[in-house]
Amino acid sequence: MSSRRQFIKSAGLASTVAAGLSGCLGSGDSGDGADSGDSGDSDGGGEGTQTGTVEQGDDLADELRVSIYGGAMGNAIEGTMLEGFQEEYGVEIVSGDFPSNWGLISKLQAGEVDLDVLILDNTVVPTAHQAGVMQKLRPENIPNLERYTDRFDPRNAQWDPTEDGASYAPFQYFANGMTYNTEQFDNPTQWDDMLTETAKGHAINASWIERVTGIAGIDVGVDVSDLSTDTESKLDQIWNRVEEQNDYIFEWADTGGAIQDAFASGTAYIGMMWYGRATTLRDEDDVPLDYIIPDEGTTMATSGWGVSPTTDRRYTAEKFIDYTLSEQAQYDYSEAIGYVPVTEMSELPEIVQENPDYQKRDSLEFFDGHALMNHSSDWAKEFQQVIRQ
């Protein structure tokens, strides 16, 4: 099995150093789940460091250091993609949870972590480019780049600004859909159903700024895929909606784990949570939940891989990415979690076909990652002012 080592915990911003990781994955502060759609719920503990042999040319290294998300997604990644690559190629995978895209980027910039492959959502790819923490992928080592469907091919995507190629390889997409307690709500269909007396004090949403502004923007008809034009007018509409939502929301959660726990405990009746977490609670823990894409639609994101510019295992990293894009790996992973592959597939698992993210894929919009890069700090400050009024 792959080695799972914790080097960032999903709890506040307190500094936590996992024992035995120096020189391997690095030490890390706690993450806040600010960008990953299924982040939080870090687990695992420190283990003794094992130093892998550096690859020579096109020879595989004997170890690869990969960051992943936590929770149900992290378990599915580990049990399919990581273990599958390890078994097929004999490369030991050392993985750790990074619940926050922003935290991962800042630590890579500061040289505080030592990674070969990093996991990111597409919304922060422009920021990662600007920060210089990704390097261009070499297509000769990743032939499965040709398997992308047009909508998700990073070589043609606005969110991957790499010239003449790509530096980001998504492996799935997911929507920021609505989850609700079926014992409290009878078939809600709109985001407005969060603004009801039944929902008041029991609605939950993520505090990550692209989720906040994305969902509120969709709700009021703003084109959140382009927030770089007419920005002030669009944001005025969004903040007015967030202020209305705030009267009903009892928690703007910092992590996916906090949202999941609120639904599991019965505190949350309705709010934003992802298909993978909702179905895990429903099917494995018997929590009375259902998941929908509201009539207005919602935002979506991809999860994907980048290669660290400081790695001495570049070829091995690219072969790992190629493996995760193979049809077998895509099928195994999507069957385990229910999220939708971004490649051409001859067959989709039943759990994916039942996923509203797949069924209502034409109702999903990418969030403007370039605007997020340019305005995230100001938007975060404005958001805090709005919810504290």
What does this structure look like?
- The protein is α/β, with parallel strands linked by helices.
- The protein has helices spanning about 70-90, 100-110, 125-130, 210-220, 230-245, 255-265, 275-285, 315-325, 325-335, 350-355, 355-360, 370-385; strands at about 5, 15, 30, 65-70, 90-95, 115-120, 170-175, 180, 205, 250-255, 270, 290, 300-305, 365.
- Strands 10-9-11-8-12 form a five-stranded mixed sheet, with helices on both faces. Strands 6, 7, 13 and 14 form a four-stranded mixed sheet that branches. Strands 1-5-4 form a three-stranded parallel sheet, covered by helices on one side.
- It is globular, with a radius of gyration of 20 Å.
- The model is unreliable at about 5-50 (pLDDT under 50).
Short description:
With 389 residues, this protein is of the alpha/beta class.
Beta-strand residue percentage: 15-25%
Count of beta strands: 14
Distance between the termini: 50 Å
Average pLDDT reading: 87
- From the spread of the alpha carbons, the general shape counts as globular
- Main sheet properties: 5 strands, mixed
Structural class computed from helices and strand pairing: alpha/beta
Instruction: Detail the poorly predicted runs.
Output: 4-51
Radius of gyration: 20 Å
The oligomeric status of these chains comes to single chain
How many H/I helical runs?
Answer: 12
Spell out the helices and strands N to C.
EEEEHEHEHEEEHHEHEHEEHHHHEH
